[in-house]
Amino acid sequence: MTPFLLPTTGPKPCLGETDLQDVAAWLRLANASGLPPIALRALLAEFGGPQAVLNQPFGALAATAGEKAAHAVLGAPPRSELGSFDECLARTLEWASVPGNTIVTLADCAYPPALLTMPDPPPLLYVKGRLDLLHARAVAIVGSRSATPQGIDDARRFAQALSDAGLAIVSGLALGIDGAAHRGGLSGPGGTIAVIGTGADLVYPPLHHALAHEIATNGTIVSEWPLGTPARPANFPQRNRLIAGLASGVLIVEAAMRSGSLITARFANEMGRDVFAIPGSIHAPLSRGCHRMIKQGAKLVETPEDILEEFGFTVQSEAAAAPVSKPRKRGKTRPSEDAGTGPATSEFALQLQDASGSGCAARGKPASASWASASLKPADPEAERLLDALGHSPATLEILAERTDMDGATLQSLLLQLELSGRIGTLPGGRFARLER
């Protein structure tokens, strides 16, 4: 984990509407062991503020929230990753003194109104960046950390289109789909919100250090965890609950059957948020979670316009007809046979066979010529890399060139080898698709 660098001195803490005298009380109650947010909310509603809660006798607290909550409130101040409570308080005030860093509590007008509809909103949030995004209408985009190139493209494109429409994009700063969603959100006016599972003074994963700083500058980073909290597996389901809470709907791009994204979708459904999912190949492991959500009632979407229409935006019919993966305009269309006839050999491959003197197709012999099959035994690493880049969704020659950085001649040669060996086929529109064996 990479820490954000903090100055040792600075201006007075920026704490939204929170009174400086209340900071210690908020920290103490927010981190009190055994005090659930719903009990704290009841105490605040009854007694008016954090200091007033701390000043109540045991009996009054127990009558409002139960004896366990009363013990938690009146217990010793909690320790944290930073040490004693006094050390935690000092570090929190120091962190809040940095421009762009804000502590937002349930009593602040800056507190996200969407979270107030949750049964257990966190009493205190650590926010880096734009406070206005906490009040924006938002869509969460989440998915696999081990995303395919197609999934990365879809997440970024959906995020950019929704951001262009003015929706904020919420995600969890993880590798894969989350990172692509944040980058797409940053490219539009809607912006992006990263909900993290560590303290707001840390960046996890470290590979997203640059992205985190870009979001802190142009978007918003939100954490409910005390400063110094490292990444722990148990933290991330709770983070997913906040992702769902901040958004009006959640889009699942790619997800395996045991993906954390499905936890986010479950939270969203329980909170009455819309759940969307992009379908994929029945052979793709990362499509199975999406298909499961669709079977359970998630809305199947193929374009960003499908989501915008659900949210009441007016979209043009031409835009709604756009495919999930848009073919690039540059380059030539590769001739092909109809995809419905099975593992077809393209016209280009047949011409090469005839030119080489084999004439296999013309004589009715199997399309996978012996020299082509032999070229993949043992497996060609570059051909395997090309297959990985293709994934389980059709892609054009131009898309594959962009994903692999291969030159045209190498790409054409490998595609021909894979096609003749029966591992890929061609589709109308110059697209290639994996053939499952």
TrEMBL record:
Q: PANTHER family recorded for this chain?
A: PROTEIN SMF
- Designated name of the protein: Rossmann fold nucleotide-binding protein
Q: Which species is this UniProt entry from?
A: Caballeronia sordidicola (Burkholderia sordidicola)
One matching Pfam family is: DNA_processg_A
> What are the residue boundaries of the Smf/DprA SLOG domain, all occurrences included?
103-311
The entry assigns this protein to a family as follows:
Belongs to the DprA/Smf family.
Residue span(s) of domain DprA winged helix: 373-430
User: Which GO terms are recorded in the biological process aspect for this UniProt protein?
Assistant: DNA-mediated transformation
Identify the SUPFAM superfamilies for this entry.
MCP/YpsA-like
Positions of the UniProt region annotated as Disordered: 319-344
